[in-house]
């Protein structure tokens, strides 16, 4: 579905989003309503935390099948969050939120079993992105958008959007439309609109850190390998503008060589079908692990941004620290 139609369906519903605050994330604002129904004229991207405060974000993709592996990763996330030394402010999803064909309704019973039961205990708002499996049922993108108005934990205001949290501006992509660009006779209008939006928003951003996320990686050494439409259409916009691009799609965890100032991460080990890494003939992989469940943690203040990977036992596997004044620090022992 065209991104504008997706947003229009949400706007037509006109239901109020409930505010949510828990002691662990008291400083984090819930911006789902502001994203879903922006002011006209909009004053700019909504803000979760002021720019002078640090943030900690949970990130994961490729998870929503309701199986034991998904629940194991969710339990590890909760254990991490409940440690008073490092609670999350909010979460993001990297697509393939529901297998195999998304969800056909905002009242589908799997919202409880596959979303609220595993992730509701965290008490966080998650700002979601769509994956290819979320498009297999044409009703699913709309259903996932409409569920934002029913839940205190889920937010998909539109298929691509932007917001600010502390020193970071986040840019959420709908990569399924980007990946369709290679198909013959495919309407390029949604792709071109998204490209214009991304470049405009990145150029306008004054945040110290710019993190772009979506489902399909640009580069990957997982089973799906690199994605040519992302390289051709999106990478030129990311270069010299974004600091981080993080995606799912490959069911593994990776840190890949930066290019044009962009650091590439894959975090698609959220619980569905563990897969191994593939060969790396171009030697793009700095670190990676396959056949392993896990999630990522992003932490940022004005001077640094760190991306860490954890497995389902809450063991840290890899830590990459970007700094405004120091070289990149990589602590990623071989698996």
Keywords for this structure?
Purple Acid Phosphatase, chain A, domain 2; eight-stranded mixed β-sheet; 8 helices; 24% helix; disordered N terminus
Would you write up a description of this structure?
- It contains eight helices and 15 strands.
- With 335 residues, the protein is an alpha/beta fold.
- It has one domain (3-331): Metallo-dependent phosphatases (Purple Acid Phosphatase, chain A, domain 2, 4-Layer Sandwich), CATH 3.60.21.
- The strands form two sheets. Strands 4-3-2-1-12-13-14-15 form an eight-stranded mixed beta sheet, with helices on one face.
- α7 runs parallel beside α8.
- The chain is globular.
- The chain starts with a helix and ends with a strand.
- The model is unreliable at 1-26 (pLDDT under 50).
Describe the secondary-structure layout.
Blueprint: H1 3-13, H2 32-36, E1 55-60, H3 68-82, E2 90-93, H4 110-119, E3 126-127, H5 140-146, E4 154-155, E5 161-165, E6 168-172, H6 175-179, H7 189-204, E7 209-213, H8 228-238, E8 244-247, E9 253-259, E10 262-267, E11 285-289, E12 294-300, E13 304-311, E14 316-323, E15 329-331
Parallel strand pairs: 1-2, 2-3, 3-4, 6-7, 7-8, 8-10
Antiparallel strand pairs: 1-12, 5-6, 9-10, 9-11, 12-13, 13-14, 14-15
Helix pairs in contact: 1-5, 7-8
């Amino acid at each position: 579905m065209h991104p504008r139609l997706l947003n229009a369906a949400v706007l037509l519903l006109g239901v109020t989003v409930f505010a949510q605050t828990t002691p662990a994330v008291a400083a984090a604002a819930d911006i789902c309503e502001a994203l879903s129904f922006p002011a006209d004229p909009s004053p700019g991207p909504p803000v979760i935390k002021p720019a002078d405060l640090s943030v900690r974000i949970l990130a994961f993709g490729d998870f929503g099948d309701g199986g034991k592996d998904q629940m194991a990763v969710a339990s590890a996330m909760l254990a991490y969050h409940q440690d008073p030394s490092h609670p999350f402010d909010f979460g993001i999803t990297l697509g393939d939120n529901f297998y195999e064909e998304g969800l056909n309704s905002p009242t589908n019973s799997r919202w409880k079993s596959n979303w609220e039961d595993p992730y509701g205990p965290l008490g966080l708002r998650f700002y979601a992105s769509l994956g290819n499996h979320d498009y297999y049922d044409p009703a699913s993108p709309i259903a996932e958008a409409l569920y934002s108005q029913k839940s205190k934990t889920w937010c998909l205001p539109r298929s691509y959007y932007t917001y600010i949290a502390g020193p970071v501006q986040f840019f959420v992509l709908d990569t399924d439309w980007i990946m369709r660009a290679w198909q013959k006779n495919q309407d390029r209008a949604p792709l071109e609109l998204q490209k214009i939006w991304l470049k405009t928003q990145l150029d306008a951003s004054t945040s110290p850190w710019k993190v772009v996320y979506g489902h399909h990686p640009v580069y990957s050494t997982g089973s799906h390998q690199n994605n040519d439409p992302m390289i051709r259409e999106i990478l030129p916009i990311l270069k010299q503008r974004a600091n981080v691009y993080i995606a799912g799609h490959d069911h593994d965890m990776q840190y890949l060589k930066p290019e044009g100032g962009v650091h590439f991460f894959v975090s698609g080990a959220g619980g569905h079908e563990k897969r191994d890494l593939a060969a790396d003939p171009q030697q793009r992989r700095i670190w990676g692990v396959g056949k392993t469940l896990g999630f990522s943690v992003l932490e940022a203040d004005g001077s640094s941004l760190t991306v860490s990977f954890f497995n389902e036992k809450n063991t840290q596997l890899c830590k990459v620290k970007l700094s405004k004044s120091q070289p990149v620090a990589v602590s990623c022992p071989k698996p």
